[in-house]
């Protein structure tokens, strides 16, 4: 029996150690303040959890070694025990404290990553709309008036605000080395704040299953110096073609595409679902009167009453 | 619906499945005719209302589904074992992981647990059957035909392909145009109604049919866990019923609930799904906690430590299970406030769960532990499940979840919870109660071999996924490029999956081997156990208890053995038992055809099948069936035959 | 079958008691079902899209008629159960008959109302609000329809077999079901119609 127990322990312990040593995992290799916060949070929580595991495993091993029938006297009769008030209070209160500590950490870090990174709080963020369609990503830069497909270039040391929505199934926008992920949905806009502090190429992807070619929904996030970025924008404006409505409607048809670059955005003719264009009209009956084309119909309903 | 779309085509694996389905459907009736077993099958199984036989049928169905879901899993692991693998295409892979999830949760874990509770709960409370035996048969046949309906989707029309959570708009007609998700909404609906009825049935059974003297706080822990599970079922399943009905309306009747235009809300589906879905996790975990409590107490030869806090912690878990559903979509962009509240409720579940872990550990203290096969599973559960638990706490932290969500880390976490939690639990329960039902043990040597294969391979399969997740590998990807570096760990995981397969084959081989060679067991109490079910002879007579036991404490049977007193005082009296009925089976078939016609929107046949269902209900209400009595002479004869050797 | 004569007929056997408790629990599940439908309706109630709003289609008169019919039927079924308790089969059958007729009337008005909505261009497919409305009302209406069939079957059994523990038990359980549908309607009346018309 012994070698099996050993193998069993190894099968748990070895990968655990491997995981601890390997610092090159994407999530633990942050290139910006938001991802750094998350990496630190995760490492902190792993420490706490390893502590809990050590306590449980120590007790477990002790019980199994000491109270196995083969080691005990043949006539030994285990006692009848109802439980101990103090022990039970102990293993209720300690987890409560652990949960409180983790809750505080969770709330603070959630606030951190949901806002503009602290070091850049006074700067105006660069807004980029990232919208998904089956199975690609569209990046619109409203300030620069340019649009890309399946790659996004951003300047370093500047806060970026990604605004996310979808022309189809729910997707999740994720650049693990820069920030945590968030859903892109068809009827509302969600926001990711991030900043990148090291130029380089980082993998970005959709992490939420969205159909047949979901696995190919990856994009490159290229972090450039401010100067390179400005040159790139200028270059796109001068050389890339404009994006027409017809072409955009073709683009959002289901397909897997390579990169594309345009010198205008789809935001003008196909606005994102925010503000007046949001998908839900919560209790707004005057929605009808706002919209000129439905005025007649509206009058008709008035008559019915 | 064009006829050339009716059968799924183009895949050698699917043709193989079709051939095997045809062969099996010819072989079964042929075999039954040849061995003249039609009458036996009908009288003893298809029409039975005996909770033990219904339990056995649940477990057989669950084992079959375990292999169906297991083959799905193997295919997934094989496809992702090497980068850019061409074994499966995207669509096929999507169907496979979708059905893997549905089958493992709804058609494997749930029925296995319901099967065990059918067999054990009436015995543990000293009852002769459940409160509504015929309703119980209806529950089973609805589950069974719901499961069959989902399974034929593989060859007829196409399987659901939007994930087991079937998020809209992906699951809408626009993005999932095959009938696959119609199967999803209808098959789950039919099985779900059966489950709801089971919940009601067992709640009434446990509340009203306990042996005299068995107060609530003197019930065995497994019965407690089923009581709480039944309550969760009753509160959670109607939500699924509504969600699935709305899904059907959206897909087949053009309504706008989850649509992308006309005011629909896609996240409404996600909310409804997880309001049911999270409690569902506890529906499959809590009974396993109950099983472990029984097994650990038995094989440590000690009463359960902290009985009361075990009960209260289960109640706390069941309440909290309804308050955490948002943690499945922290990333949908609600404010910090909402995410924080749900983070805290989620982490709070760790507290009662921790209490249970420590109580189990302290049950072992000063015990006398014997390492039988069921005990090995219970003992392996503690360290492995704890990993699942602590990673659950990590996932509960909203901010950190932004980096784990939808990754292999999540996949690893819930397999670390559900496999040692539920799967080990039902296998342990299966080994533990097997001799009660069949009158012989499963072979210990083979059982232990299977155990070591399963536990070690489990860790080899799923631990690498934690690391892959932290390295950015998302779930549900049918392929990835070599440059990502995900290859080696996925290969390791595949090796583990092969080991798991060997383990499960050994487990089933053990059933065959033990049936043929294992010595018969005559005492009725092979493990020297504690609760009432072991006071009956094995295998069990139809009526379970010739005389209703009188109980005055927890583990009454254990103390009765110690003090040499009898739980059964009094004279035999005629026992009233319910009659068998073919109605539940016929009703199940009618539901199957109703569902099938609905899937393809064939309205007229569907209406006809619906009328047949109403007809079975009408028949039932006009029928006068008062059951039958077993005479005192017959009871004496049965008891003497079963207990002859040792009484 | 042991019959305990100290208890009302519908509670007089062990099996009857189990069935009544079981049905109460089933009603608990029904409450969850309707709560979910209400939650869906409330979530979507402002999402009219290009379709009509609640105040544009709701009319007070038919809704008041439906309410009065259903409330009265709840009262008459109570009288029916009372008649059953004092052993008057004829009175019991009369009151049950009236109850079912009132239910039928309710259903008739509701169907007319649905037809009117559809004629005004307010169909289940028009907007998320209307999908939610039709599903909530339709589920309640389907329950009433099922109740009519079920109640009819019970009435027939009472006529043929008299007031036995079995028929009394069925009648009592049916009355619970009927009261429950009435309660659900009160919620629909207050929180769907009145609130929508305001």
From TrEMBL, chain A:
SUPFAM superfamilies attached to this UniProt entry: Cupredoxins, Cytochrome c oxidase subunit II-like, transmembrane region
Residue ranges of every copy of the Cytochrome oxidase subunit II transmembrane region profile domain listed in the record: 19-117
Cell location: Cell membrane
Parts forming coiled coils: none
Amino acid composition bias (Basic and acidic residues), ranges on this chain: 277-305
Classification via PANTHER family: CYTOCHROME BO(3) UBIQUINOL OXIDASE SUBUNIT 2, CYTOCHROME C OXIDASE, SUBUNIT II
Name of this protein: Quinol oxidase polypeptide II
UniProt source species: Sporosarcina quadrami
Automatic annotation (TrEMBL), chain B:
Protein name per its UniProtKB record: Quinol oxidase subunit 1
Main location: membrane
Cofactor dependency: ferriheme a; Cu cation
Pathway membership: Energy metabolism; oxidative phosphorylation
Catalytic reaction annotation: 2 a quinol + O2 = 2 a quinone + 2 H2O
Transmembrane segments: 12-35, 56-76, 96-123, 135-156, 183-204, 224-249, 311-330, 342-364, 376-398, 410-434, 446-469, 489-512, 585-614
One Pfam assignment: COX1
Name of the gene this protein is made from: qoxB
UniProt entry keywords in alphabetical sequence: Cell membrane, Copper, Electron transport, Heme, Hydrogen ion transport, Ion transport, Iron, Membrane, Metal-binding, Oxidoreductase, Respiratory chain, Transmembrane, Transmembrane helix, Transport
PANTHER family: CYTOCHROME BO(3) UBIQUINOL OXIDASE SUBUNIT 1, CYTOCHROME C OXIDASE SUBUNIT 1
From TrEMBL, chain C:
Major site of localization recorded for this protein: membrane
Keywords per UniProt: Cell membrane, Membrane, Oxidoreductase, Transmembrane, Transmembrane helix
Catalytic activity: 2 a quinol + O2 = 2 a quinone + 2 H2O
Enzyme Commission number(s): 1.10.3.-
Pfam family, one: COX3
Segments crossing the lipid bilayer: 21-44, 64-84, 91-109, 129-156, 176-194
Membrane topology qualifier: Multi-pass membrane protein
Domain spans labelled Heme-copper oxidase subunit III family profile: 1-197
Enzyme class: oxidoreductase
Location of the protein in the cell: Cell membrane
InterPro entries: Cyt_c/ubiquinol_Oxase_su3, Cyt_c_oxidase-like_su3, Cyt_c_oxidase_su3-like_sf, Cyt_c_oxidase_su3_a-hlx, QoxC, Ubiquinol_oxase_su3_dom
Domain of life of the organism encoding this protein: Bacteria
Function recorded in the entry: Catalyzes quinol oxidation with the concomitant reduction of oxygen to water.
Family to which the UniProt record says this protein belongs: Belongs to the cytochrome c oxidase subunit 3 family.
NCBIfam families in UniProt: QoxC
Name the UniProt record assigns to this protein: Quinol oxidase subunit 3
Species this chain originates from: Sporosarcina quadrami
Lineage: Bacteria, Bacillati, Bacillota, Bacilli, Bacillales
